[in-house]
Design a protein that fits this description.
It is a multi-pass membrane protein. With about 130 residues, the protein is an all-alpha fold. The model has no long low-confidence stretch (mean pLDDT about 90).
Length: about 130
């Protein structure tokens, strides 16, 4: 059980750091982010604020103990974000962006998998 918990937290923290960096870029609307998201992908600038806030909320939810139902929603949101990023990057012909999205999605799915394993282990211990 201890190995599962450590694995969960290592993968989750790595994943959340990536989403945090992304959220900060989106909220600050750096010139690079604006160029990549609004010009290349065709998103309106205000959409970056929506994404940034949603990512911050998801990060907070995953770091707070309990609230399992909200965690499910956070993982769903991160999964949708990764799929949308993959689709968007693919649509504009950016294969490296598409690959990055798949890697991030794998981290999200691994984090979720180990969360469920940890939760089942706790249920059995009770």
């Amino acid at each position: 059980m201890k190995k599962i918990k450590i694995t969960y937290w290592v993968i989750t923290i790595c994943t959340l750091i990536g989403f945090l960096l992304s959220a900060v870029n989106e909220l600050l609307q750096t010139p690079k982010t604006l160029a990549e998201s609004t010009q290349l992908l065709g998103y309106p600038a205000y959409f970056l604020t929506i994404l940034g806030v949603a990512k911050l909320i998801g990060i907070i939810v995953l770091l707070i103990p309990k609230f399992n139902r909200l965690k499910e929603w956070a993982y769903a949101g991160f999964t949708i974000d990764c799929i949308a990023a993959f689709w968007s990057e693919n649509a504009v012909g950016n294969p490296m962006g598409s690959i990055k999205s798949v890697v991030v999605l794998l981290f999200v799915l691994l984090s979720y998998y180990f969360l469920r394993k940890m939760q089942k282990g706790m249920e059995l211990a009770s």
